[in-house]
Design a protein that fits this description.
single chain; 119 residues; mainly alpha; Arc Repressor Mutant, subunit A; three-stranded antiparallel beta sheet; 8% strand; globular; DUF742 domain-containing protein; DUF742
Length: 119
């Protein structure tokens, strides 16, 4: 199988999308943080913000958002920071009850496998 190079987008476009910011001030959003929209997109909203809100009507992981909007995770984290600051989303970390070294349950693995097949 030949892999295609990852297209991270035009650097000028990414600079514009993030307003010149290159990193998030804190580490609120890791790859598996679940994002839930608290409102609908509004007219005049930045298109990337609107797309994220539309995607997150149900809890959606940061990595899934990145894949759907076809933007690097770092850019998505900046956009999510904007939405969180304005109260348009809620961020939920995965449950901390499990140890990092404990294996994931079979239901979770089945969901991951299903998601990979859907790609």
């Amino acid at each position: 199988m030949i892999r295609k190079p990852v297209d991270t987008g035009d650097p000028h476009r990414l600079y514009t999308v993030t307003g010149g910011r290159s990193r998030v001030d804190d580490d609120t959003f890791d790859l598996v943080t679940l994002i839930v929209a608290e409102c609908e997109p509004t007219p005049g909203m930045q298109s990337e913000h609107a797309r994220i809100l539309a995607l997150c009507r149900h809890p959606t992981a940061v990595v899934e958002i990145s894949a759907e909007v076809k933007l690097p995770v770092t850019v998505v984290r900046i956009l999510l920071g904007d939405l969180l600051a304005t109260g348009r989303i809620t961020a939920r970390r995965p449950r901390a009850g499990r140890s990092v070294t404990s294996p994931p349950d079979s239901a979770f693995l089945k969901e991951v496998l299903h998601g990979l097949h859907a790609l």
